[in-house]
Design a protein that fits this description.
The complex is a heterodimer of chains A (236) and B (402). Chain A is α/β, with parallel strands linked by helices. Chain A has 7 helices and 10 strands. Chain A is globular. By secondary structure, chain B is α+β, with helices and mostly antiparallel strands. Chain B is 54% helix and 16% strand. Chain B has a 6-stranded mixed beta barrel. In chain B, helix 4 packs antiparallel against helix 7. The longest helix of chain B is centred in the last third of the chain and has 44 residues. Chain B is elongated and about 100 Å long. The chains are: A alpha/beta (236), B alpha+beta (402). The complex binds adenosine-5'-diphosphate and magnesium ion (MG). The site of adenosine-5'-diphosphate has 12 residues of chain A, from strand 1, strand 2 and helix 1.
Chain lengths: 236, 402
Amino acid sequence: MAKGKREVIRLEGVKKYYFMGENIVKAVDGVDMVINHGDFVAIMGPSGSGKSTTMNLVGSLDLPTDGEIYLDGHNIARLSESSLAQIRGKKIGFIFQSFNLIPNLTAKENIMLPMLFQGLRIDERELKAEKLLELVELTDRKNHYPNQLSGGQQQRVAIARALANDPDVILADEPTGNLDTKTGEKVMNFLEEFNRKGKTIIMVTHDPELAKEHAKIVYWMKDGKIEKTTKTKKAR
Amino acid sequence: MISKESIVYSLRNLIQRKSRSFLTILSIFVGIITIFIFISFGLGLINYIESLKTESTVDKINIQPKGVGPPGLDDTFALSEEDLEAVDKTSGVIEASGVYFKPAEVRKNKELRFVWAISYDPEKPLVIEMFGTKIAKGRELRSGDSGKAVLGYNYLLKDKIFSEQSDINDRIELNGKELKIVGFFDAVGNPQDDSNIYITHDDFLEIYRGNSTGFNWIIAEVDSERIEEIIEKVEDSVRKSRNLEKGKEDFFVQSFEDLLEQFNRILLFIVVFVIAIALVSVLVSAVNTANTMVTSTLERKKEIGVMKAIGAKNSEVVKIFLFESAFLGLVAGVLGVIFGFFISYAGAEFLKRAGYGFLNPNFSPILFIGLILFAGVTGAISGTWPALRASKTRPTDALRYE
Ligand SMILES: Nc1ncnc2c1ncn2[C@@H]1O[C@H](COP(=O)(O)OP(=O)(O)O)[C@@H](O)[C@H]1O
Ligand SMILES: [Mg+2]
């Protein structure tokens, strides 16, 4: 591969159609995309343009109607549901707009959960969770439940959870959408820091400023298609 | 994987939905209590009946009129002295003894009670051997005793039959005839037999004058090795002595063991029947549990989606919900056997005071463990379908509603 870049994700002619009675909703309508190791990609576009659907396909949370998706060279359509779950849990970390922490688990337990699904021992899980809490500066809140934390704190727990299994790729769907500018900035700084440390980041946003400011590559989506791809000053 | 996180997660969810969990547990609990009580008493009764099969009962056979009413009350006919002689002479019969019994009015210090009067031959006290009881106080009847009575155990107690407890040499009046108490038997364990009044044949026939047509019951001691064969022979002898055709017998011959077997079968039938009804209630509660679990999975649809997004396999999701429903079942099982135990225990104490000491529940450890496991498995089975359904939730469908 050019410049020694390693390919992490490849989408070839990916379509996702929803059949609603008479209507067909073409949420994603023929997307090609190659994402390399260490990229910071923003998927930009207006609401309803298919950003989240694309991201879910990349994250193998759903299968495409047509086209191929490769994760680390594996065609995800060929994998069984449980090995997909296993790979997803290992290689991808999700961050959602509405945090999506498990309400009945504490901050620390939420962070331990992905490691549990990978079969790590309890002491390994505890140790790693403590480290991650330190990283997101929430050690003093480890035994708090999500509803005892502010939005920004919840999102930092979610970030820690996304990092639990040391994934190559972090998928963030409007990670600052529910946060004020200041806390949003803090979350973005974390993402940039992880990117500097070598993580591949794919962020969905409808905010062009955010995309230009933090990402290296921006995919502009409209009506399920990629209109253009631009490199920001950060790409160099 | 059963882990600390998934266990605390499940428990917190169950606690959060307190009233629903409580009602689910309650519905399983009721069935488990019922089953516990009936099995413990059923086993106890079966054990009791087994315990009646002693050395002194294996060799006994009964010859009784095929009456329509309860024995002793049905006066259509009774067995005669000739019948007794015929039984006695049958080969294999070691000894035979006739017994009279009738309801009696017993009076003591102006208190009047209705009990059973039983007479037997003191030389051949086979009926006492069958009851498996011994003298508790005083002496047994002797042949030639006249105007003497031996009483059941309950007469030794205050406020049981009479307000005063009775003693040796006290006088009672049986259907107008005055009798002197010479002894008391030990408890048999049921209030009817423990209220019996035992007298000699002569006194009995005097009291009931023309009213008694013959023995209500003949007991024979036989060679227990050949008991089946002897029963047939005795049947032949009595048929001949009563001048009856085969198949038209107005009496029946049965070994004491067979009689007990027959009781056991009836008992088993009743226990099985009640348990079957309790099982229906458990089935209903299983449906209720399944409903609880379906609601629970729908409420947590998004959480399930999140868990799958962060790497939970379907089997992991199944395990979480199976654990919850099995846990509900287990709690119901544990509470069910605990409450069942106390109810049975208290019930047995109460019955013992009322004179039904033989109704003594059996608390086998297998009953406790078995029922707890049964409840847990019922919970798990109820949760299987909801859990499988929940595990098929598509993460995208679950996460869409933000
Ligand atoms: N499960 C679904 N069923 C039907 N339509 C859907 C479903 N998911 C998404 N869509 C539709 O697909 C389009 C793209 O949705 P989405 O990817 O969420 O857009 P974005 O994230 O860019 O706002 C929208 O019109 C949306 O209504
Ligand atoms: Mg979206």
